[in-house]
């Protein structure tokens, strides 16, 4: 009898481990805190971009006000630190920290990426160099990997450009033959690139050495209205922000649907036309809650 | 030897059973030999007249009414043996190939009686009306367009079946017998000097003819679509394409919007001068996402009606409207630009006004004199960073509630802010 019990316990432990390893466990989002004001008490207006430096600094693209805001994040609390407006950045929409702590910001009006210090000093534009024809590059979004390489979602030429930290061309992966419109990309620690197709409500992926994008998920039209942003966590789970539906859809590392969190609304925990999102290694989801003119933080709960 | 005998017996048994069942299916109602059809017509006397029509459906002719109808009981209307949208397929199951690229909606829906009379008709194939008259009874827009055209495509005059299959097509969209241009070049020889001259020497024999020509008829010379892009009208193809002598003559001179900017610089500059761009304007397909480069039925060279053009990407928004209890007129009418700027705007959602209140007020003027407090100075109680405007309570593209409010107006809407009244 004891042996049977031991066997049962062992079996369930193995099953639990296998289940956890496959990333199949349910993921929930717990509302943590929100940012409504900048450091001088001005309300945010339709922010579209967020970035976290992995330690304690949160940067926000306060798009409607044309400003960059900085917050410190400690003990589940946000404290406004600084805000700056730059003539080169009148409409910031996407942002990323590089490994040196500099902030890269995409301006939606000029469609150029600026490099800033974390004290708000303009360090110049990221100018893609030695890019194969066609030479015109229009980034809809971008991401920076752990080595500082820049991944540009070049919608004009239908490709993802990989640039070194100085902006020099490294490689390119063309968009797949059939797609609707790509709004955002994510890059995991293995340098796999994920694209979100807003029109087809589908994710495409290309592993590090692959030369083309392949469908990674099925069309998620039943669960997503119009996804506009994507982020990936260390476990390979993907988070998609559903702009029109007001919610976050989570996919497992195999591209399968793992659930939908939050809903359309105004109160904390709800989302209204959410835009960019960022997942920290510590399991915090930062969301630019554009329609609610705030940034929301959620704890990712297993 | 024994087993052989068993097999023979089994085969004989099977033959008897099969024969019996066949006989039963042929005359499952055990009608007297002379009663077929006559039994039905004894009561349905009006049918005797119809049987005199030149084209009678074979089972009717044979008096095999029970092929389609059950004389005693049925779960379907008109005592049909099968669901109305499936009964024809009992005999005509090969009418649509599994490889069909396009299927006539009536056929897909099993609505065969839209075109055919199941008993008898004046026209061949038991059609309700003759030739194009039948097609135009549904496709009225094409009929009107053909009638109003100065130049009519000859095959259309003689009927639609010159180019289209009536049921389904394996070869092409829109029920076309084969794809364009091979369908067109079947009649219009593309290797003659006159063809080359008319097309300014460009190798268009393999291009899509319908990107310039209205296949049904038009009042434009050359049967071009009603709205023609100026360079096409002036036969200045080389304004956008490489010279006709070039090996890649059909290639355009510049990619994306950069090509259009050459002439439409003011519009492009104005578009780029706004903060928020419609990203489709600057993607790989750019202007051609929405506009046809040569000619189009729609004004402003839109590829399709505005509703369909916008819907090709924003299906969720249109779906929301379709499901909405209350319809918003501009969306129903396909007038998306009543509220949104199609190229760029300084406002979120590419709205076409300085404020939501003013935008809605441009149609709903009653809100200027009788409304819940709204405006920049009225804080939304649910979120201190927002002020109240029309979209605080209404979702303009539609909801499940009357007046497209976000929440049930009786129970949940007002108490979102007026929490003390919440029950």
What does this structure look like?
The complex is a heterodimer of chains A (302) and B (423). With 302 residues, chain A is mainly beta. Chain A has a single domain, classed as TolB, C-terminal domain (Neuraminidase), CATH 2.120.10. In chain A, 7% of the residues lie in helices and 43% in strands. Chain A is built from one helix and 24 strands. Chain A has one helix at 2-21, and strands at 28-35, 49-52, 57-62, 67-74, 77-84, 92-97, 103-107, 113-116, 122-125, 139-144, 150-154, 159-163, 169-174, 182-187, 193-197, 202-206, 214-215, 227-232, 238-242, 247-251, 257-261, 277-279, 284-289, 294-301. In chain A, the strands form six sheets. Chain A has a four-stranded antiparallel beta sheet with strand order 1-24-23-22, with no helix packed on it. In chain A, strands 2-3-4-5 form a four-stranded antiparallel beta sheet, with no helix packed on it. Chain A is globular and about 70 Å long. With 423 residues, chain B is mainly alpha-helical. Chain B folds into three domains: 37-92 and 99-128, no CATH class; 130-251, no CATH class; 256-352 and 393-421, no CATH class. Chain B is 27% helix and 6% strand. Chain B contains 17 helices and twelve strands. Chain B has helices at residues 2-26, 38-41, 46-50, 58-62, 105-108, 131-136, 140-147, 154-158, 182-185, 193-198, 230-233, 256-261, 265-273, 306-311, 315-323, 329-332, 356-361, and strands at 55-56, 102-103, 120-121, 151-152, 168-169, 217-218, 227-228, 276-277, 295-296, 344-345, 375-379, 387-388. In chain B, the strands form six sheets. Chain B has a two-stranded antiparallel ribbon. A two-stranded antiparallel ribbon of chain B has the order 2-5. The chains are: A mainly beta (302), B mainly alpha (423). At the A-B interface, loops of A face strand 8 and helix 15 of B.
Q: Topology, pairings included?
A:
The complex is a heterodimer of chains A (302) and B (423).
Chain A: H1 2-21, E1 28-35, E2 49-52, E3 57-62, E4 67-74, E5 77-84, E6 92-97, E7 103-107, E8 113-116, E9 122-125, E10 139-144, E11 150-154, E12 159-163, E13 169-174, E14 182-187, E15 193-197, E16 202-206, E17 214-215, E18 227-232, E19 238-242, E20 247-251, E21 257-261, E22 277-279, E23 284-289, E24 294-301
Chain B: H1 2-26, H2 38-41, H3 46-50, E1 55-56, H4 58-62, E2 102-103, H5 105-108, E3 120-121, H6 131-136, H7 140-147, E4 151-152, H8 154-158, E5 168-169, H9 182-185, H10 193-198, E6 217-218, E7 227-228, H11 230-233, H12 256-261, H13 265-273, E8 276-277, E9 295-296, H14 306-311, H15 315-323, H16 329-332, E10 344-345, H17 356-361, E11 375-379, E12 387-388
Antiparallel strand pairs in B: 1-3, 2-5, 4-6, 7-9, 8-10, 11-12
